[in-house]
């Protein structure tokens, strides 16, 4: 069984989509809900709908993907309406709402809106979008992150987590974990894409995507070792009651197994879901179950966090 938990919530499968992939519309979200995935998350919703950056803004690379979508989304109200319908249709199941502000002051407004709604799922506050021109990734600025979390949790009493960018220095893990441990978080999601990579088409000497001179978030196999390190480093530093959604570079059952060894409670699929489609959930579920059987584990909890080191 791939049964797992996050906070008080239980899921029949560790796999879910990563926000941004297969989750813009109700039809896409319904396809994830109907797949073997254990849960689903919406595209990051903002206070107002957005059209995002000019196309082409997504490309498939040798070992992953690049994107600079620019937060196109249908707006928080659309995703709250979807969640209300989902809850009515799937009693006992939990979904995630991803949200982000275009400026810090938007975060408490989003939180108030969700707090006042009938939403019973988990809210993922996205502090790591790399693609809006002129807007730095919030969670690389520890002071702004602290201000935003303080403003959110003044009035927010529902289960919540944060989507983090990849970090590359142990002092960053120390500082961010110490900061996050001050708040009543249920989870973190680590990692968002590797921000501001660049891909060149050798046939034309041209960048692969249009926005920001070709710079965009990198996902897929390029991200795997960074994702493993981030999940591991946060598991070693966060309060035990803060769960982890592991995201980054999963293309096989073994990749998911490795994220769980590092401490992941749930595993989300970004690039592989974008390139392979919804059947990735069926394939990866079978591959992870086979890997667990080979290693002699009946549940993810049996080996979660059990990485061995030399
Ligand atoms: C977008 C990309 C992200 O990595 C993210 O966290 C949010 C939004 C985007 O470009 O739409």
Name of the CATH architecture: Alpha-Beta Barrel
Instruction: Note the beta-strand portion.
Output: 15-25%
Global Rg: 18 Å
Fraction of helical residues: 25-40%
Low-pLDDT runs: none
Q: Which molecules other than protein and nucleic acid are bound?
A: 3,4-dihydroxybenzoic acid
Number of helices: 9
What's the helix-strand series?
A: EEEHEEHEHEHEHEEEEEHEHEHH
Task: Summarize this entry quickly.
By secondary structure, this protein is α/β, with parallel strands linked by helices.
Question: Key features?
Answer:
310 residues, alpha/beta, TIM Barrel, seven-stranded parallel β-sheet, four-stranded antiparallel β-sheet, 9 helices, binds 3,4-dihydroxybenzoic acid
């Amino acid at each position: 069984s791939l049964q797992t938990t996050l906070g008080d919530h239980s899921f029949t499968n560790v796999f879910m989509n990563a926000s941004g992939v297969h989750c813009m519309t109700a039809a896409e979200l319904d396809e994830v809900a109907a797949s073997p995935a254990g849960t689903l998350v919406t595209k990051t919703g903002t206070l107002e709908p957005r059209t995002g950056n000019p196309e082409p803004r997504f490309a498939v690379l040798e070992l992953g993907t690049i994107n600079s979508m620019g937060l196109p989304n249908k707006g928080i109200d659309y995703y709250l309406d979807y969640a209300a319908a989902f809850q009515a249709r799937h009693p006992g199941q939990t979904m995630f709402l991803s949200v982000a502000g275009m400026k810090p002051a938007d975060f408490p407004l989003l939180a108030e809106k969700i707090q006042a709604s009938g939403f019973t799922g988990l809210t993922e506050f996205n502090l790591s979008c790399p693609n809006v021109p002129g807007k730095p990734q919030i969670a690389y600025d520890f002071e702004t992150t602290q201000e935003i979390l303080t403003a959110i949790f003044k009035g927010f009493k529902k289960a919540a987590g944060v989507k983090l960018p990849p970090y590359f220095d142990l002092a960053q893990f120390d500082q961010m974990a110490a900061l996050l441990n001050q708040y009543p978080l249920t989870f973190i999601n680590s990692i968002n894409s590797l921000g501001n990579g660049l891909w060149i088409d050798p046939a034309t000497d041209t960048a692969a995507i249009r926005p920001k001179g070709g710079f965009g978030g990198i996902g897929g196999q390029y991200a795997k070792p960074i994702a493993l390190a981030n999940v591991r480093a946060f598991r070693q530093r966060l309060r035990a009651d803060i769960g982890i959604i592991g995201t980054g570079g999963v293309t096989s059952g073994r990749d998911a197994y490795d994220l769980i060894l590092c401490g992941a409670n749930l595993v989300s699929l970004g690039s592989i879901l974008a390139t392979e489609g919804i059947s990735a959930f069926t394939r990866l579920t079978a591959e992870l179950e086979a890997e667990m059987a080979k290693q002699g584990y009946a549940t993810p909890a049996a080996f979660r966090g059990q990485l061995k080191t030399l």
